[in-house]
Amino acid sequence: MSDVATARAQRLADAPWEHAGARSNGLAGFIAATRDVWQYRELLGRLTKRELKARYKDSKLGFVWSLVRPLTMLFVYAIVVGQFLGAARSIDNFGIYIFAGLAIYTVYAEIIGGGTSAIVVNSGLIKKVYLPREIFPLATIGPAMFTLVIQVVILIVAAAATSALSFGGHLLYAPASIILAIIWSSAFALALSAINVYLRDVAYLVDVVLVLVMWGSPILYSIAMVDSQLAGGSFEWLLPLYVNSPVTLTVLGFQEAFWQPGAAAAHVPELWVNMLVSAGIGLVALYVAQRIFARLQGDFAQEL
């Protein structure tokens, strides 16, 4: 054995043992995983930058396309859905209303959709080195926030141009909605990314469910329409579940901030309280999702 190989073997023998799996169960395991992710925060940032660069690789306009897509969406929904299909007749400033809902829903769609496939997509790196694997689904948060910032800028400009924007405490609903969306979408992304390693059809199912959730949320129609359909009928018991679902609350919060302050209060009088309770439940869901991820990650390399 050469001197170089001998020295390398000695360094490996002297290195402290680091267990590559889940080190403990329960809350202690969750805290340990959170600490590991924080220690690898630089890598998390690099993965985020890689994802953003990959989106517009070899494109001449680059990040300009980040402006084109939301502007196109705003035009299509405001003109086609609002005017041609008549949806704007029952909702004032329909373009602002629908774009506010779509902007915050994009956070769910990008984090959950991208996070579900994150482990499989990064299988090459996962099989070569050890690092907290939660980083990969969580790395989808950064690009989703980048997209949201661009959409919020467009939303503010459009709302100001149509005199729909006003300043006041209701604007605090925007960051509250973003935090709520991040908590719940991260929970789903963690759990689904682990399950998708063993059941690859999960990624395709998630794409379908995300479309259904978008149409099932008060984005293309008002919550007043949902109220009128469910209230007093056989399915009235579904109304509280619908109103207090995380997606509905975040959409209502964003609309409250940028579209028409006080509109959501007519149907959810304690919107702040409901959002706070949902955030608390979401943190519990995030804990459970990480525990599921920790339980399943042991055989990732073999399955991949």
pLDDT < 50 stretches: none
Indicate the proportion of strand residues.
under 5%
Helix and strand string, N-terminal first? HHHHHHHHHHHHHHHH
Question: How many strands?
Answer: 0
Give Rg in angstroms: 22 Å
By secondary-structure content and strand pairing, the structural class works out as mainly alpha
Please count the helical segments: 16
Work out the count of structural domains.
1
Outline type: globular
Helix content: over 70%
CA(first)-CA(last) distance: 34 Å
Task: Summarize this structure as a short list of keywords or feature phrases.
single chain; 304 residues; mainly alpha; 16 helices; 0% strand
TL;DR of this structure?
The chain is mostly helical. It has helices at residues 3-14, 26-39, 41-55, 65-84, 94-116, 118-121, 123-128, 135-138, 141-161, 173-198, 201-215, 223-230, 238-243, 246-258, 271-296, 300-303. It is 71% helix and 0% strand.
Description:
The protein has 304 residues and is mainly α. It has one domain (24-303). It is 71% helix and 0% strand. Helix 5 (94-116) runs parallel beside helix 10 and helix 5 runs antiparallel to helix 14. The longest helix has 26 residues, at 173-198. It is globular, with a radius of gyration of 22 Å. The mean pLDDT is 82.
